[in-house]
Write a structure and sequence with these properties.
The chain has 72 residues and is mainly α. Helices cover 69% and strands 0% of the residues.
């Protein structure tokens, strides 16, 4: 049995939630070509309105630039 066949057999035995995690991991292992990156950018460009983008930026600036000494 080849490595690929062994992996496929392992994947077949996973429950759906873990199979989804494995699929995500496999996708992250694959490097995107420049063309694929451009396509992703094209599909997501303009997804937020100007107001939504400004609100998101404000939330990030307010929530990410503080240290909570009671937290880890």
């Amino acid at each position: 049995m080849s490595s690929l066949e062994a992996i496929v057999e392992e994947l077949k035995s996973l429950p759906p939630a873990e199979l989804a995690l494995a699929a995500g991991y496999i996708r992250r292992l694959k490097r995107l070509s420049p063309e694929e990156r451009e396509e992703v950018l094209r599909r997501t460009a303009g997804a937020l309105s100007k107001e939504e983008a400004e609100e998101l930026e404000r939330i990030i600036e307010e929530g990410c630039e503080r240290v909570d000494e009671r937290d880890w």
